[in-house]
Write a structure and sequence with these properties.
- The chain is α/β, with parallel strands linked by helices.
- It has two domains: 139 residues, HAD superfamily/HAD-like (Rossmann fold), CATH 3.40.50.1000; 109 residues, no CATH class.
């Protein structure tokens, strides 16, 4: 019996633009961790330019809390976003050491802020996210092509599920960061389904898929409407296709 075809989507940067919420939640989580009200005025309500510029390098939610904290430091390299990004992993490691924090601690703080926001005003929290133009409609059309779809995200399952419901989207499968790494989950999905494509806005993640022998056959698509770095779309390796909106809306059978 042949496997049912399925299309796998990243969430943030592919289905939704949550930059407003990212900053709001990261800012609040940071302020709770530093525990000093005097810092509140140093972190504006609107996402700073440096935060926006470094966002394409972020892989996990907790990193955004760390970025918010770094904006409090007058001597942090994040004051020069390009410099910070060039040594992103190293700078994050140094920042964790400076603040005496760990990733799990930051992720818990971020999740708690989101839970509080939903408890206080769920509608406002939902509205702080914006689906990318045409994406929700296109996903809803997949049923016409007899293709299942899944979401694979580094956001928690709980928050992703609420947003999907808000957009009236019901994926066959939903995996949040709690379920493991993306390559691990893709391998798991591939045992039951024929993966027609993995759509992601983080080139490094797609390259990891290509370099993982057990799943290197999966067609990889870089969503050009997401949080791309300046050079992400250039000189893509064989196995990764740049996915533009005009191709995305076409039948999957016509995709490269």
């Amino acid at each position: 019996m042949s496997k049912q075809p399925i299309l796998v989507f990243d969430f943030d940067g592919v289905i939704v633009d949550g930059l407003i919420e990212y900053w709001n939640s990261s800012r609040k989580a940071c302020l709770k961790l530093v525990g000093n009200e005097k810092y509140e005025e140093q972190l504006p309500l609107r996402a700073p330019d440096a935060f926006r510029k470094v966002r394409p390098w972020v892989k996990n939610g907790w990193e955004m809390v760390l970025l918010a904290a770094e904006l409090l430091r007058t001597d942090s390299p994040i004051k020069h976003p390009a410099q910070f990004s060039n040594e992103y992993q190293n700078n994050c490691h140094k920042a964790l050491k400076f603040w005496g924090w760990n990733p799990e601690q930051l992720q818990i703080a971020l999740d708690n802020v989101r839970k509080q926001a939903i408890h206080e005003n769920k509608e406002k929290w939902l509205e702080s996210h914006h689906p990318f133009s045409g994406v929700v409609k296109r996903i809803q059309q997949l049923n016409n092509e007899k293709i299942e779809w899944a979401v694979l995200t580094t956001k928690s399952t709980e928050f992703t599920s609420q947003l999907l419901s808000y957009y009236k989207l019901s994926p066959t499968l939903l995996y949040g960061y709690e379920k493991g790494s993306k390559p691990e989950i893709l391998l798991q999905i591939s045992k039951k389904y024929l993966i027609q494509g993995f759509i992601e806005d983080r080139r490094a993640t797609l390259e990891t898929v290509l370099n993982t022998p057990s799943i290197s056959w999966i067609p990889c698509y870089l969503a050009n409407w997401g949080y791309l770095k300046n050079n992400d779309a250039q000189d893509l390796p064989i196995g990764i296709q740049l996915l533009k909106p005009e191709v995305f809306v076409s039948p999957i059978a016509d995709w490269p």
